[in-house]
Fold Putative spry domain-containing protein.
Amino acid sequence: MSQSYGNPTRTGVYLDFLNQSIDTRYDLSNPSAAPSRYDSEATEIESSLNAINRIRSKSRGRGGHLPHLINAFGTLGDGSTSNCLLTGQGEGFFIPSYLKGSVYIQRLQKEYEAKNVSQKNNSSTHSSLAGSLSKSTSSTNLNARMAPSHRGMTYDLIEKVPSYEYEPLPPLPSKWNNHDKQAALEVLSDGLELKLSTQKPERDREIESCAIRANHPMPSQCGLYYFEVSILARKREESTIGIGFSSKKVPLTRPPGWEPESWAYHGDDGDSFCSQTSGKGYGPSYCANDVIGCGVNFKTKSAFFTKNGIHLGTAFKDLKGEFYPSVGMKKSGEHIRVNFGQTPFIYDIDGMMEREKILIEHEVNAVSTDKVAPPLRETELTQALVLQFLKHDGYVESAREFAKEVYFEKKALSLNPETILPDYDIKEEEDTSHRQRIRSAILDGDIDAALRYTNLYFPQILKDNEKVYFRLRCRKFVEMIRKAAELQNSNQENGTKKCHKYDTDWYDDIINHQMEIDGNDPLSQTYGLLERDDTSKDLSEHEHLLNETIKYGTELSAEFRDDPRKEVRQALEDAFALMAYQEPLNATGVAYLLDPSGRVAVAEELNSAILQSLGKSSSSFLELIYQQTTVLLEGLREQGGSAAAFLNINDYSKPKPNMGSRR
């Protein structure tokens, strides 16, 4: 039976903060500091988080910066993905329903999509630009190179790669391995069906069983792995099929479960076999039309089986090693089909996954925090973190309203009417409104205004932070392409677009004249291509914008032409690759580069640089907690077999669906 655990009941404005997105474009003209009492509480929190900064420093040495992540008060994406194949069944990417929304599947999908984009760029013959810009093997995109979003806008974790490098994840089993089987076994069509030939080769007639393994082992990083096998033989007679898993070195000439490092559930007698020829009574026998499921829980190091959607109990314990799904057959004509998650399962494995998560939540909640500093109650600690976050990010009016709400709530709950509560004095900070104005300009896509304000209010920032300057320049180029594409779409929808010779090939016209990042063929030489009608006196607004985009791209290319950094070259390639598409806003694999969420990453990196230049922390305390938790969970996942595999921090940082009714 599933349960849900909501957050403690909140009231008034505080609840609104948890339920609603903060408008990051709101121009706060009155800068301030946090209330005096909360200054002292924030100091206590800061002392308890100093260790986090030290860990962040150590993590940089291991491979880069910790990612800036989404805050708990913005509109969060759930990180979930559809339970469907993205391409063909055997080789394509699919998401088993019980892994939907897990960190493992998010990262795996990101790797898959990045690989596809890289392959498309490398093999594209669409234009000379695509060929010239696809030399790098890096799969990281422009937005992924930027510090990920964490304030106020939807920016799903599945849409970006953290700034530190991960080892490639092991993929999910997706089909039977045609090169890891006995010859008498025939792998059919999509690689999911398997049949034992009625005429065995001479060399296979004396073997005890014909077995096969899947193409990949079960990944321990997913926490729980499950697959099902359907028995397709026509006759409902005794089955000599064994279903289970084994290591790579187990011979395939004996039934699964009979050899060391091999475990299986057999259909003829219903026994389970744990690395030996003598079985143990486990469940009912099975035959034609039955569906047998096999699951491994890497946290508990145990395995179980199901029959026709019924859980049969734990079959094996204390499992160690790397396991491949495996099936063995004895009788000619036996026929099965496996489901590795490409289609819905018979057994409710989704429910089992949820129950595992709830058990882990209970374990976490049972840990005492009495000795954890600062010694504040949950409500006070949460209020202090939220107020410090609002102060840090410059949401002045929101901080004022929140502070008032907290004050009056405490006053209403005070048992002693004579108790003197601290006043909430809102101080002003000159830089706050400036940072908000810059942020607002970037979030609106007006990079020119952001550059202008930055040079006006903080003239040294871009000189001292070349990386931030480069990303602003790249983002401007992306915004120009976005605006041109939107204008083109608008013209088509309104029926006002003129039907000239090159109207459907304007991207091709540019690309065919090579927008090379080495500057050998400047784009400025292509302006004449845009004159599509000799009788036209003026270029259309769209053509003018495209003309300006080409000019700016040429300048950008020339400015960073000699930069040796791999990430700079890759970012330029990603940005220029947008020009290879006639409709980049709808182009699979690159459309996300134009998504407005990419602005948030740029805005936050610039904001962090400004804060650091002012001697302030680039991250709020709430973000530091979020980052530390993320790193802790990731470290545990890398070890394999950890409870962390079942947890996704985004599940706990987004508002609960029923919170709006709690008043």
